[in-house]
Write a sequence for this structure.
């Protein structure tokens, strides 16, 4: 892709798609209760009645946030180069988990009552986001034809 803006947004959307699918699948495991999608949806729609409505709102918000984070990742890659995209993506995913789930969720007073296992799985999901977005950025970046 020649346009870096759309490349960053596309990478963020690709990472968000993987992240949301993993969140939905992990919540199917008995004993795992990751409330991230539900809690984020309450920021925008407190009167969301059912799980489906909260899930759709939370998923949409994650896609929007993932697009913004994809733009931040392209800035990182433009600054540091495109070498080792998976390592940079995994690190960026871990940092976003710490900033968004560790700090921002507390500042916004989200009542996520996650256990240690839930938090660890959430970290792995954010690393999967970073891996996917980093791979996407390295794979689809514009290269001059030689």
């Amino acid at each position: 892709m020649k346009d870096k803006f759309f490349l960053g947004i596309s990478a963020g959307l690709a990472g968000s798609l993987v992240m949301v699918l993993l969140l939905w699948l992990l919540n199917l495991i008995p004993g795992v209760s990751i409330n991230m999608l539900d809690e984020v949806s309450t920021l925008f729609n407190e009167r969301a009645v059912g799980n489906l409505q909260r899930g759709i709102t939370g998923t949409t918000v994650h896609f929007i946030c993932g697009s913004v984070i994809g733009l931040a990742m392209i800035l990182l890659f433009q600054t540091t180069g495109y070498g080792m995209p998976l390592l940079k993506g995994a690190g960026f995913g871990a940092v976003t988990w710490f900033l968004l789930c560790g700090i921002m969720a507390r500042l916004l007073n989200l009542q996520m009552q996650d256990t240690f296992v839930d938090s660890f799985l959430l970290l792995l999901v954010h690393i999967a986001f970073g891996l996917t977005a980093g791979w996407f950025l390295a794979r689809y970046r514009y290269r001059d034809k030689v």
